Amino acid sequence: MANIDEYSGGQHSPDVLVVTTNDVPGYRVDRVIGEVFGLTVRSRNLGSQLGAGLKSLAGGELRGLTKTLVEARNQAMDRLVEAARARGANAILMMRFDVSEAGGNGAEICAYGTAAVISPLG
Asked: Which InterPro entries does its entry note (predicted)?
């Protein structure tokens, strides 16, 4: 069985909470700082591409490409958190990913959301 960190993402930073929701139950939004993003562009790995081409003939998951995409998403997420932290945020609300092709040679992965300062209720 594969290590879960190789094929998934998630919360990476204990000091900046990242959520896909508009608010955080049990917290209030004290200040909205604004939009922040983290971006990475990854070229296609020749070895992964060859393996993916062969695997696509038989069908099934393209594990090399899956792992590469997970790494790219995690890097974009790390950059998003750093951007929010640099602006004084302790939370990112409404986080989303956007992936697009970059010139036919790779993929652009962008993590974005709303940087905010939140505090516990009561």
From this structure: UPF0145_dom_sf, UPF0145_YbjQ-like
